[in-house]
Amino acid sequence: MTSSAAERQAVAQERAAEGPGAVLNGTPRRTPGMPVWPGAPTPLGSRFRVGPDGVAGTNFALWAGGAEAVELCLFDESGKETRAKLTELTHEIWHGFVPGVLPGQRYGYRVHGRWDPWTGARWNPAKLLLDPYARAVDGDFGLPPEVYGHVRDWPQQQVADTVRDDRDSAPYVPKGVVVHDDDDWTDDRRPKTPWADSVIYEVHVRGFTKLHPGIPEELRGTYAGLAHPAAIEHLVKLGVTAVELLPVHQFAHEDHLLRRGLKNYWGYNSIGYFAPHAGYAASGTRGQQVGEFKRMVRALHEAGIEVILDVVYNHTAEAGELGPTLSLKGIDNRGYYRLQSDARRYADYTGCGNTLHVVQPQVLRLITDSLRYWVTEMGVDGFRFDLAAALARSMHDVDMLSPFLAVIAQDPLLSRVKLIAEPWDVGSGGYQVGAFPPLWTEWNDRYRNAVRDFWRGALPDVRDLGYRLSGSSDLYAWGGRRPYASVNFVTAHDGFTLRDLVSYERKHNEANGEGNRDGTDDNRAWNCGAEGESDEERVRALRRRQLRNLLTTLLLSTGVPMLVAGDELGRTQRGNNNAYCQDNEISWLDWELLEDPGWKALFELTSRLIELRHRHPVLRRRAFFSGRAHSADGLRDLAWFTARGTEMTEQDWYAPAATLGMYLSGRDIPGRDERGAPIVDDSFLAVLHAGDRPVSFVLPAPPWAEEYEVVVDTSREEQGDAPGETHRAGSAITVPGRAVLLLRVVG
């Protein structure tokens, strides 16, 4: 039975009166004196401020609902620890103000309570715990036996998690750092790019900058490196409007990786939801990483580029019952994590050992406080939520009326930033593509699958492709959602790079040390006739053409396109489709690719397509197509054509086909501009042909057009300013094998 708050308060006061002879884990230890004033229960975390009588110090506040006592632990430069009990308890928050504690001070907590794993209670004061609200973290997370709350190497592994380990973990774990927040962002100008105008670029801070020749060596791999003019120049030339950063919350490395001499490179193993990952800081880890991150955001904003964070609130680095005790597990295991009916075990909807219990008020508060912090104090513009379906679960099932989604919907700050869901988790009923409420956009994996299958010749017909190219109305045309609810992507960090997608059909993950068992086998890839790198020019040329086809399809589709950093350069991971543990040349961008004329041409085509998208509102519609005629001549806002130049019939949609024509009318764009005037644009015809042989395509006759001008032809290695050929409507043109033609309507 959980003790009441009053009982815990009495226990805390009793232990505080024990004096210097206090006993920890049966061993007498002297606790040096440290003045602790009552302080305040809010805000949570450590906050430097001026206290009573103008005395500077830091207020510490920690939610630990079922704990019996909490000790604040301060560490000097030599690592010597000074402890003080927090005796104030307000609404399950332990708090105190310590005069004289200044920014840069390292600290942690020891939390006392019952050790009873059978009921989910795993308190162990021998373990130094990271403050969940720490704004900065100093030190690396290794995983020696001392950082486990249980005896990791107990001979009977089936009960190892029930045997408490009383060894002190403090020498082996990072510490929180007191940070002085003195930045009000008054000089920052957020780009505030509308969703429909956005082009997202998924990027890894370290991987993007590590080998960049224009970035000073001491800044490579860091926030400062991404803020460097040489890095931003590439983003501006490419034309993207937002960077989506792979996780930058403080994260830890898994034990199984450390044992193999590897590390978690992607960072989907968070342990500090308020702290920028210290490993990406060039300026220092005693709070300097906070200022460095802010300067990076400012630099990107000045270039007109928004910053979206990939955040992992579904699980933490503490894994399951056999995982380490680093923070939440030792603060209140039952209060933070979803447990099974057998409370020794964790409910795992993430595949990572644990799942945060977002239904609990304190967990919901932790997440929303973190989100608001990154928006208000760190300047970010939005978030992509890893395994978002896990956050939307109520007690068990995914629920679109869940507390998390409800809180976000009504929050006056968070409801106005960019919100992207990865709309699935690994639990039962976890696949939720198209189901998130109207505020949200979603990673659309059905778009990815359809486009990949079309270009490798694996679609039975073109019905699904038609939906994906035109904004996925079958998924998102409900509840006031718009086409930009669909984040369209062909590749992401998880899986093959774009170049590998056309170079490999099988994963090659041997470097990960898991016997090539990790990573998906469902790659929907085609290697163009040879597995891996090839010296045969025919194969190499075909692969470059397929890359042009895939990128052109993505950037002409209705919805929000997402590119993966390096795909525009022909980056390869040598067939590794799960490079989460490869912090090396496998994952880092090879900037020398730009010196190759073929890869430079790919970059230039990508940049040109993005610029075309920015210039033409018909390519970034804010409302779904109606498919109906809006004028007497019968011209519709969207029409589909066969290679015969006739409109698609229902029978055509169900027939096998490798060719599809998509007509986008620029005169029937819904909405008005900022001055209330109608939006009018050019009209375009896109012809996608996945067959390996050329095909004759009859251009739609009037009223669709009088003449057509070729704007993009992916059969060409070099596009030039524009291919520029013109063709009469009603005439037949030859579309080369495996190519996209984009034609502008003339007359």
UniProtKB/TrEMBL annotation:
Gene3D superfamilies: Glycosidases (3.20.20.80), Golgi alpha-mannosidase II (2.60.40.1180), Immunoglobulins (2.60.40.10). One of its GO terms (molecular function) is amylo-alpha-1,6-glucosidase activity. Residues 1-40 are annotated as: Disordered. This is Glycogen operon protein. Belongs to the glycosyl hydrolase 13 family. It comes from the Bacteria. It holds the Pfam family CBM_48. SMART domains: Aamy (SM00642). Its EC number is 3.2.1.-. SUPFAM superfamilies: (Trans)glycosidases (SSF51445), E set domains (SSF81296), Glycosyl hydrolase domain (SSF51011). GO terms for biological process: glycogen catabolic process. Residues 202-613 form the Glycosyl hydrolase family 13 catalytic domain. Keywords: Glycosidase, Hydrolase. Residues 1-14 have a biased composition (Low complexity). The lineage of its organism: Bacteria, Bacillati, Actinomycetota, Actinomycetes, Kitasatosporales. It is an enzyme of class 3 (hydrolase).
